[in-house]
Give the backbone structure.
Amino acid sequence: MTAIIYSCSEKQKIEKTAIAADAFKIVTPIDQVVTKNGIKIKFQSYNNDDFELLEFVVSGTYGTTVLKPQLHQDQLAIHIPEVISQHSGIIEWKLIAGETTLERGSFKLLPNIKQLKTVENYVGPRSIIANERDYTMLVSIPVDSLDNMLPDQTVVQMSKQFKGDITTTTKKIQSGFAWQRIPAPLTTGRLITGSTLQQISSKELVVDIFPDIAVPFKITKSSNHNYADGNEIIILQTDQIKDSHGNIMTDGTLVTFFIKDDHDNSWQTTASTVNGYAFAKALHPQAPSTWTVKGVINGMVESPELNITFKSIIDEIPFSFSENKIVTIGPLTSYLGQLVPDGIPVQLKIDGSEIILKTHNGISTYTFDTKIIEPNTYDIQIKTLGITTTKSIELK
């Protein structure tokens, strides 16, 4: 067991420091506007000998602080510093001496609605789709000169402007902010938003309105002719691609043209839209064929199929055999009688072997080496520009 013994002098000191509950009385603080100058709380009554034993405990938005009374020119007062007085909220306080609470209470620090600083505006998403489903939201947070949010029911004017049409809506602050849901317009453009409170205005914030999903479109072709010459350029073109509300698709929308011919060959080409139109180029085939073309915007929509038929530029293959070993194919001429472009492939098949030649000035030639192929009579198959013919030659 532990015992604590006090001397007579210590006991007298403790008894002397005991303070009566009514020995000190402050002027009870009332609800007031925030200030950057601090708050002075005066004492109605006090004892000059014992005030140093007092502590004033303040609890607010940013924590708890213990303050000591100050005696100045026979006036005892407590000064609540500006770090506390400039933030709105509920202030709870109590006046204590040792473990004894002499007084306690609370008061409100209110935002200063007569001295406003700014209206902070936030809007999002910043880009939406022109349909009945999408929307953006405008949020306004006005603050006073000390950055305190304003009280509930404060009225804010929230405005939007789209294509010359201005709409202003009155909203009341709740929990420090006012908000408004803005449905997406059904046409593309820029939606401008802003808010005002008394004489204070927010910054301008802009929302971009983009087209909705494209509706099915058609494709057409443009070319100088429909001959399979391997040289002409064909242009594949969409009509103007729009959404269901008539909005032209955004520039840069990628359209893929899938092409398949009647020889089971498949390939594709792409183009980006400009003002809703997409143009892609392809080279005419070198052999007569029929293309099936379809335009697709990935994940959205596709066009009906377009069939394109290419005709052969020749009816037969000019052929000659000279000096018992030289084969000449050509001159190959196109639909106007002009020579075909250089580089047109010509395929020869003889005795199980295949030889690929290229045209130059419309002609391909090949000289057989009788050291490699025995002199004899052979059937030679010639294929070019989609035409196949068989000739008989005698190598000597």
In short: DSSP finds two helices and 33 strands in the chain. Residues 1-16 have pLDDT under 50 and may be disordered. The helical segments are 8-17, 82-85. The CA atoms of residues 59 and 321 lie 111 Å apart.
